[in-house]
């Protein structure tokens, strides 16, 4: 009972806990303040206050070896006293906030204003209303009841605006919700290893409590603060908190502080958790930032306050750095960069993007990574072009209407402007204004962003099923453009299930596992000890989960393979480990990418030392001077013996695609004790015990997946740390290389030798000579991988810039994953650091999932092209109809409300229908669209213009001779508030029918004949087309005055549908015209070299680059460049005339260049890079300079 009230008391009143710290020997506050100390200060404080780390463990009622008992009440109590390991995410935007954001759209605001004016005027009846002398068109079909209905049009416009806003807001809301779902899914997958009741278990990060004993290892992202109790060679990258990029070595007596959000770069160990959630160092920073509030603010306020917001966040962080950490030296700029990089890492659930909301946004905030995605760039450009055209058209429409009206009224009919008529005239002008705005609304494709969002969000959701967890939306679209994939070998192309299949022991090369009796007992004992002790104790082989399955491998897979070898030799490693527990290991040199080996030193009973080593065979064998003979006795091992062994044993193993590992040992005397820090002397003069060949079989589905990639125009390269022969053998098995082809397989050393000049600097043109043929890069270091990726991306060797995808699982792959256009991290084998740097996580670690990602990426691109093709056809037609109609008949045949309905079908619904087409295998049969491929190809342009011609012809026919064809009253030249005419209703209805059937045509963009192909695989499409049709019937038959419709008879409906069906027939006609003949058709929406804005500029505010501003600036630059050239030419002429040296001209050239740079600099410091690139004509490839 007492316990119950006590815990209640805590939950109600956490403030009072210091007086009640009696439960545990220290309070949350004490631990929190302890964690704020660093290095020696912390060691002193622990000594003074607690004694040592073991004492802290005792106070926290936990055991350094056994961990917490793990009983529910105990865990619950700890959560109540010390808090949970969870940082509450920022509250999502409410629906109303999203509505408010959607209302900010300029065109909608213009429409609202127009509608409100129109409403106001309809309620205002001026005295001159019935004055016959006011206006020509007034009168005629006007009757009293109709005049009262003048407000309907304004109200209807408002209503449709509300519709558009709600749809947009709902879309944003569901997108946000999807992201939250994705985020929580990522969080649940995030597990960490702790010891509870003596058992090593993996628990979700949020379950970790204070007092837990956590096992940390290479590649982990620490989920909570803690004190280091025991371990070896632990090095931590604390840059996400301190801004210092050096790795910090942790040890119990010098620096035991382990902080959440930092990365383990090397080694392993155990820590006791001392602070979780909001009380951890990361949590404190997050609380200061308002749980990443500023990050989100940045998105809301965009440019103006965005910068200020992030600065506020940074200054908060910097002051924290300076106040609490001794590293006050981290200058603000650096800490800013790191803070943003760290923002993601700092969340407790490491993969959470900084604000838990839109991961896309985080990317803009803190990825110094890439240019705008290709699609975004092309779309922005296209939207701006279309918007400009629409603006011009609408302005002309309004001007023509106003002029025609004034000329007709005041000049032709010579009516005087009577003061009492003013309101009537104003009403006319408002009507004209509304028509103009409607033209603009129809012209601007505001459905584009919607289509992109829907298409991406839909793809992301579906990609989850294909084992692709997308962390950044635009990665899935970039993937469709990928031209190269640099893949790891282990685990991606192979199953990552290692088994020893060959061995060289005691002078004999066994092609399969040797019989235990054939191996000398002494050798056997050494071998078992060397493998059991010199591997992470977390690596084990567990019995299979179900009968007949393979044993489960836990931990490092290579070590699992070796332990499996011990079991195959009918030996057991457990008793060896029990006799020599982890705490008793004297010194451990952990594996890292530089050493390529791991060694463990133990103290023997006679006080002497023995070191066991294992590692890549060519590296360890170089350090061996003896080898165990068949009798188990060491004999001399000379360099020439080694060469022979490499030839006879290692190369044949490698050529079978095996990984060769050498196991060795060395004895040291007890005195004098060797200097363990002098690695070069220690790791030398070893005695080789055996060399094993480990097989990591190729995944069965990989060769097929690689074949698909190659067919789709994607080059697959393998980058691996393995021996070159092993790598080559696996590459042939996978089909990356085919015997007899002209390709390169290089080792890291050779690669570096070829790409560096005499000074040791990397030269791009040297890389350009290598990468097109390079297929396998073996024995590569992480920097080699990064260099290769960067080299391919920066290459101007091909006419298209290469788009590179990279897979990685290790901590060292981080830089390459970040640099790549799309980084894939492994969900199972991947370390947290790799996942953090990636764009997409492969939840099944399988290469064939990458092929699915390519398919989805291309599908996104195609969906958007389909949508554009449909949208632009409607745009062109609607704008021309509204424009000419207005100019010829002073009234647009399509009313404002009808236009908005058309806009709603073609924007919102069509984007839903066309953006959700499922991908097909045929997408993989074409080459990738490059970065320079226009969004609207010639074929699409042909379709757009072809269908526009058909639609315009029919609509104008109906407009001018429709009344005769259907024997109805003409709707032309109707007065201001006249009732809707059947004539115009037929035009509206036909227009919508044509759009509906054209939507089916738009499903194919490469000129295919069968537009119905696979239509039933997309239920959303069918639903939307039928739904739109149903609503259209309701609007026409019952829409009445608000929609300016009068009900139609059945035969009129039949005609409308018949004309609509004609679209499908006409589509076939268009398909027969060969595109190659239509050279005059322009493509649109292409990114030229010049628009690929340099990175510095994008790091400023990506979305805020004002296009007009950029046009201006480009104008300035071109002007300067022109001036510059003329001056240079004049100089050259003068120089030749005077016969003086040519130097003057060159000097002049450089000074002019610098002038033009200065001017560009004046105009805006953030765009310097752009102006530099454009100011000197030499810095551009001739083509680009020419385009300029």
Query: What is the approximate shape?
Result: elongated
Radius of gyration based on Cα positions: 36 Å
The total count of helices amounts to 42
In which range does the helix fraction lie? 40-55%
Structural class label:
alpha+beta
Strand runs, count: 26
Q: Report the span from N to C terminus.
A: 82 Å
Q: Work out the strand percent.
A: 5-15%
What does this structure look like?
The chain is elongated. Helix content is 52%, strand content 12%. It has 42 helices and 26 strands. It comes from Ovis aries (Sheep). This is ATPase plasma membrane Ca2+ transporting 2.
Key features of this structure:
nine-stranded mixed beta sheet; alpha+beta; 42 helices; 1188 residues; ATPase plasma membrane Ca2+ transporting 2; eight-stranded mixed beta sheet
Quick summary of this structure?
The chain is of the alpha+beta class and 1188 residues long. Helix content is 52%, strand content 12%. The protein starts with a helix and ends with a helix.
């Amino acid at each position: 009972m007492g316990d119950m009230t006590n815990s209640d008391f805590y939950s109600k009143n956490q403030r009072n806990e210091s007086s009640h710290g009696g439960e545990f020997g220290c309070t949350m506050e004490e631990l929190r303040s302890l964690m704020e100390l660093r290095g020696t200060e912390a060691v002193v404080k622990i000594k003074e206050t607690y004694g040592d780390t073991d004492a802290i463990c005792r106070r926290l009622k936990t055991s350094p070896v056994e961990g917490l008992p793990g009983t529910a009440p105990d865990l619950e109590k700890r959560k109540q006293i010390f808090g949970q390991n969870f940082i509450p995410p920022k509250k999502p935007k409410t629906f109303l906030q999203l509505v408010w954001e959607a209302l900010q759209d300029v065109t909608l605001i213009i429409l609202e204003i127009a509608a409100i004016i129109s409403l106001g005027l309809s309620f205002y009846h001026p005295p001159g209303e019935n004055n016959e002398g006011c206006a020509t068109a007034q009168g005629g079909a006007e009757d009293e009841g109709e005049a009262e209905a003048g407000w309907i049009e304004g109200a209807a416009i408002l209503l449709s605006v509300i519709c558009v806003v709600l749809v947009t807001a709902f879309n944003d809301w569901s997108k946000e919700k999807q992201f939250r779902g994705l985020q929580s899914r990522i969080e649940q997958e995030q597990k960490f290893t702790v010891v509870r009741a003596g058992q090593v278990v993996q628990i979700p990060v949020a379950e970790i409590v204070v007092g837990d004993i956590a096992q940390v290892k290479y590649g982990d992202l620490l989920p909570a603060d803690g004190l280091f109790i025991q371990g070896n060679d632990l090095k931590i990258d604390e840059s996400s908190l301190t801004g210092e990029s050096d790795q910090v070595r942790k040890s119990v007596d010098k620096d035991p502080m382990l902080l959440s959000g930092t990365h383990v770069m090397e080694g392993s160990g155990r820590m006791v958790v001392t602070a979780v959630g909001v009380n951890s160092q990361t949590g404190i920073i997050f609380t200061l930032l308002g749980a990443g509030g500023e990050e989100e603010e940045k998105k809301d306020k965009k440019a103006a306050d965005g910068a200020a917001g992030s600065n506020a966040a940074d200054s908060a962080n910097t002051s924290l750095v300076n106040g609490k950490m001794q590293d006050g030296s981290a200058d603000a700029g650096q800490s800013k960069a790191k803070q943003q990089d760290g923002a993601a890492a700092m969340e407790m659930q490491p993969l959470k993007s900084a604000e838990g909301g839109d991961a896309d946004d985080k990317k803009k905030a803190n990825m110094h990574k890439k240019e705008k995605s290709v699609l975004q760039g092309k779309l922005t450009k296209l939207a701006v072009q279309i918007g400009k055209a629409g603006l011009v058209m609408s302005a002309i429409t309004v001007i023509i209407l106003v002029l025609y009206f004034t000329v007709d009224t005041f000049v032709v009919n010579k009516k005087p402007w009577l003061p009492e008529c003013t309101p009537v005239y104003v009403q006319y002008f408002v009507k004209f204004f509304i028509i103009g705005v409607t033209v603009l609304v129809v012209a601007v494709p505001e459905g584009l962003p919607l289509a992109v969002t829907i298409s991406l969000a839909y793809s992301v959701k579906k990609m989850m099923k294909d084992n692709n967890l997308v962390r950044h939306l635009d990665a899935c679209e970039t993937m469709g453009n990928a031209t190269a994939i640099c893949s790891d070998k282990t685990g991606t192309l192979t199953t990552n299930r290692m088994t020893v299949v060959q061995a060289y022991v005691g002078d004999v090369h066994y092609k399969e596992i040797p019989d235990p009796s054939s191996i000398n007992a002494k050798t056997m004992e050494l071998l078992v000890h060397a493998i059991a002790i010199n591997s992470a104790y977390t690596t084990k082989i567990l019995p299979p989960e179900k009968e007949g399955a393979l044993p489960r491998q836990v931990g490092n897979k290579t070590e699992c393979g070796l332990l499996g070898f011990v079991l195959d030799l009918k030996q057991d490693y457990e008793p060896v480990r029990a006799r020599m527990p982890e705490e008793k290991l004297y010194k451990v040199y952990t594996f890292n990418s530089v050493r390529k080996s791991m060694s463990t030193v133990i103290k023997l009973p006679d006080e002497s030392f023995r070191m066991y080593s294992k590692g890549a065979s060519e590296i360890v064998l170089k350090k061996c001077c003896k080898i165990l003979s068949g009798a188990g006795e060491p004999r001399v091992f000379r360099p020439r013996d080694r060469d022979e062994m490499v030839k006879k044993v290692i190369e044949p193993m490698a050529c079978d695609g095996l990984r060769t590992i050498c196991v060795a040992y060395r004895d040291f005397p007890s005195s004098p004790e060797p200097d363990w820090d002098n690695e070069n002397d220690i790791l030398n003069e070893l005695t080789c015990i055996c060399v094993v060949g480990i097989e990591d079989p190729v995944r069965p589905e990989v060769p097929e997946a690689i074949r698909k990639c190659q067919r789709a125009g994607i080059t697959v390269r393998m980058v691996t740390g393995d021996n070159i022969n092993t790598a080559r053998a696996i590459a042939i098995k996978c089909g990356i290389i085919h015997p007899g082809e002209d390709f390169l397989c290089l080792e890291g050393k050779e690669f570096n030798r070829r790409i560096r000049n005499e000074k040791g600097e990397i030269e791009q043109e040297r890389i350009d000579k290598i990468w097109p043929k390079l297929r396998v890069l073996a024995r590569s270091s992480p920097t080699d991988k990064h260099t290769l990726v960067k080299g391919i991306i920066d290459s101007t060797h091909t006419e298209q810039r290469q788009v590179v995808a990279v897979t990685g699982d290790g901590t060292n792959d981080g830089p390459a994953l970040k640099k790549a256009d799309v980084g894939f991290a492994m969900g199972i084998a991947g370390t947290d650091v790799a996942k953090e740097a990636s764009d997409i996580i492969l939840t099944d670690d399988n290469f064939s999932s990458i092929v699915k990602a390519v398919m989805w990426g291309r599908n996104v691109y195609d969906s958007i092209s389909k949508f554009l093709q449909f949208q632009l056809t409607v745009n062109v037609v609607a704008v021309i109809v509204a424009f000419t109609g207005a100019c010829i008949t002073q009234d647009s045949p399509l009313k404002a409300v009808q236009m908005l309905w058309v806009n709603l079908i073609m924007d919102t619904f069509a984007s839903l229908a066309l953006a959700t087409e499922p991908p097909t295998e045929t997408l993989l049969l074409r080459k990738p669209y490059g970065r320079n491929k226009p969004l609207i190809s010639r074929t699409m342009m042909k379709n757009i213009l072809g269908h526009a011609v058909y639609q315009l012809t029919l609509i104008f026919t109906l407009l001018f001779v429709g009344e005769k064809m259907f024997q109805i009253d003409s709707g032309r030249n109707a007065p201001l508030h006249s009732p809707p005419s059947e004539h115009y209703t037929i035009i509206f209805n036909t227009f919508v029918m044509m759009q509906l059937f054209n939507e089916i045509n738009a499903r194919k963009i490469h000129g295919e004949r069968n537009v119905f192909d696979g239509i039933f695989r997309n239920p959303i499409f069918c639903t939307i087309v039928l739904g739109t049709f149903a609503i259209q019937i309701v609007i026409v038959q019952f829409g009445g005055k608000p929609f300016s419709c009068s009900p139609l008879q059945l035969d009129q409906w039949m005609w409308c549908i018949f004309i609509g069906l004609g679209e499908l027939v006409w589509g076939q006609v268009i398909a027969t015209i060969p595109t190659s003949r239509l050279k005059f058709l322009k493509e649109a929406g292409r990114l030229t070299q010049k628009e690929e804005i340099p990175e510095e500029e994008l790091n400023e505010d990506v979305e805020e680059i004002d296009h007009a501003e950029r046009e201006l600036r480009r104008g300035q630059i071109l002007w300067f460049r022109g001036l510059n050239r003329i001056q240079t030419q004049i100089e050259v002429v003068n120089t030749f005339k005077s016969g003086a040296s040519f130097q003057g001209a060159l000097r002049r050239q450089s000074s002019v260049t610098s002038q033009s740079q200065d001017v560009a600099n004046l105009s805006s410091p953030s765009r310097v890079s752009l102006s530099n690139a454009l100011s000197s004509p030499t810095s551009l490839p001739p083509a680009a300079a020419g385009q300029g």
